[in-house]
Design a protein that fits this description.
The protein is an alpha/beta fold and 223 residues long. It has seven helices and eleven strands. The protein has one domain: Rossmann fold (3-Layer(aba) Sandwich).
Length: 223
């Protein structure tokens, strides 16, 4: 499928799929969306210093990179797992401007390293940050109580409805530890209902620029 690099409203890049009229991040601002959904309403909601994170849709590596930046600021220890079935190519990587837009040139080699690391092996990226990239379809995930936090950043339900079903969210629920959190940019009613059906306690939160709401879900045995 054809992929194009585009500039979003906050100046940061993302990848656009013309065939689907879909992009990897919000056209209203890739970095703004990533920070709002996954850092402010995900990472910052945990009070643990040692976290295991699962990202659904590793994609451009933006969510992973900003999590590394936050881990170094906050002295967090992160074990990060990114699932991606269709990795981006090296020429696409070279067109992404996250390092300059985030004013993090001192860690530019880390952003590149994240993409160039081998698949399916846990590797240390920084003193307090390990990364495992899994080349895997979301439907094949079968982790049990392994993660504190899930960044659910799959393509939208409009183009891939099969990734936003009760079956998928049951896999997400099972992969979280008790009191684990899942956050996503989506606030679609069918998505919220699927989450609730499998056991999540779901809260609607204000969304990032361009979206009215997003979802924050907690695995709890007491709901």
């Amino acid at each position: 499928m054809k992929r194009e690099i585009i500039i979003t409203s906050d100046g940061s890049t993302t990848i656009y799929l013309p065939e689907w009229d879909e992009q990897y991040h919000s056209k209203h601002g890739a970095i703004q969306e990533a920070y709002h959904v996954f850092i402010k309403n995900g990472l910052e909601t945990h009070n643990k210093q040692n976290l295991a994170i699962l990202e659904i849709g590793f994609g451009t590596g933006l969510n992973c990179f900003i999590t590394l930046l936050e881990a170094t600021k906050r002295n967090l220890t992160i074990n990060y797992t990114g699932v991606e079935a269709y990795p981006i190519k090296e020429d696409e990587l070279l067109q992404l401007n996250y390092v300059s837009e985030l004013d993090s040139r001192n860690l530019s080699h880390k952003f590149e390293e994240m993409h160039l690391l081998g698949w399916n092996t846990k590797q240390k990226v920084h003193d307090n940050f390990s990364l495992t990239k899994r080349k895997q379809f979301i439907e094949d995930i079968n982790d049990i109580e392994q993660f504190d936090l899930i960044y659910f950043d799959a393509f939208g339900a409009r183009v891939q409805p099969e990734l936003w079903t009760e079956e998928i969210f049951k896999k997400m629920y099972d992969s979280l530890k008790d009191e684990g959190v899942l956050v996503t940019y989506s606030a679609k009613g069918s998505v919220r209902r699927a989450m609730i059906t499998v056991g999540f306690k779901v809260t609607k939160l204000p969304g990032p620029p361009g979206k009215r709401e997003m979802l924050h879900a907690v695995k709890t045995t007491n709901n």
